[in-house]
Amino acid sequence: MSASVDQAAALPVSRLLSSAPPAPFPRRTGFIGMARAHLLLGNRLVSAELKRARSAAVAIADPSIRRAALRALAKRGNVEGAALLATVSPPVHRRTALHAVIAFQIAYNHLDAVAELDSDDPPASSRRLHQALLAAVQPHEPHVDYYEHARVRADGGYLLAMLERCRRMLLELPSFALVAPSLLAAAERIREFQALNLPQHQGGQAELRAYSEGVARQFEGVAPPLGRGLSWSESAAACGSSLPVHALLAAAADPLLDAREAAAIEAVYVPWGGALHSLLDSLVDREEDRAQGLRSLYECYASGRDAAEGLASLARAADRAAVSTAAPNLHRAILAAMCSYYLSAPRSEPTAQAAARARLLEVNGASLRVALALFALRRLGHGLARGEYV
Q1: Residue, of 128 and 39, whose pLDDT is higher
Q2: Euclidean distance between the first and final Cα of the chain, in Å?
Q3: Angle subtended by helix axes 328-343 and 76-86, to nearest 10
Q4: SS3 (DSSP) at 312
Q5: Secondary structure class of 150 (helix, strand, coil)
Q6: Among candidate residues 234, 313, 309, the one with its CA nearest the CA of residue 279
Q7: Which stretch of DSSP H or E encloses residue 69?
């Protein structure tokens, strides 16, 4: 990596944000424009990539891995959400950015599903499996045996093919080298979160709490503040989110991206947008978490009222951080789209979902109202055609 990239990665966010303004690709679109771009291109590429992956998944020899792979591929909604971030990248590199974020999210979903399979050492197995996400963002890193601690391993090269597809795309993104250190850091946080977020019968979340408290201290001083410190569960949520990876990959499609803008974009999603993303996901998955013996991160708040206020605080901080980017309305639209995906999910507990929606509407206002309406229509249309939209 060049010295200039190393130096940029070492600069504190506050210093980067005070440098001369950048001249990146002017992405001034709001939610409607982003949705239109997604319908014209992103949605088609998501369908094509899921079809490609499904064809490979049905050929997996091991029935446990095959079922896990197909279950992961049913999660179309968060793959579309990942693609949404790249739909307004510079046109010349838009397809490449879309392929990169789609491949990464498909790999993430697959690893999450496979990590739930039986293992003699679940933390070691999950950590080694999720090592694959580090390889996904390091195109020249040698592969290791990601199934080393798993009881099942015969996937016929399915995982490696996904990782290589992502890596090929990264090398075509003009500003990949600039965001590479931040991408790797985000992938490392995901790996640790997945390895330490254990059900009670496997040791619980004591180690995750200790790790997340350390990460929270690293986030201290990052502007804009919440007016309070991040709780360990909010920090853990930020660690587990793939949203920062997708935002940085989309930004890497811009040949004019500079260190200041890259840092400004990262500050929207690390930790604020990423924590909000994971906590809303936790809200939707509360029943699933309980069935697996996991403590929901959402339920770490003292009450439903505290939870709704916590989500609102994270949304406000992400919104304030967006002001320092070259395209604040774009990032607000991305955050509104992400929130609306979870706030329109039929699996959420109605009371908690309603409280979160009310507080987030106070923060995001019209953009979230528009996004909620469009996502409701998307879920209805998908439900009539293919079943539940997840």
Answers
A1: 128
A2: 39
A3: 170
A4: helix
A5: strand
A6: 234
A7: helix 63-73
Per-residue model confidence as pLDDT tens digits over 308-367 = 999 999 999 999 999 999 989 889 888 988 998 888 877 667 888 889 989 999 988 777
Q: Token pair 């770490």 is at which residue?
A: 300
Long-range contacts of 348-357 (CB under 8 A, 24+ apart): 348/283, 348/284, 349/283, 349/286, 349/287, 351/304, 352/283, 352/286, 352/298, 352/304, 352/307, 352/308, 353/283, 355/304, 355/305, 355/307, 355/308, 356/280, 356/283, 356/307, 356/308, 356/311
Q: What is the dihedral of CA 197, 199, 201, 204, to 10 degrees?
A: 50
Local structure of residue 231 (DSSP, 8 states): P
pLDDT band at 379 (very low <50, low <70, confident <90, very high): low
- With CA atoms as reference, report the closest residue to 311 among 272, 269, 365: 272
Banded pLDDT at 14 (limits 50, 70, 90): very low
Q: What is the mean pLDDT of the chain?
A: 85
pTM for the full model? 0.86
CA distance 235 to 212: 5
What is the C-alpha to C-alpha distance for residues 36 and 4, in angstroms, rounded to an integer? 37
pLDDT at 27: 52
Alpha-carbon gap, residue 131 to 150, rounded angstroms? 13
For 53, residues 6+ apart whose C-beta sits below 8 A from its C-beta are 69, 73, 106, 162
Q: Which range scores top for mean pLDDT: 50-59, 219-228, 329-338?
A: 50-59
Angle (nearest 5°) at CA 196 between 284 and 127: 110
Tokens of 363: 């923060």
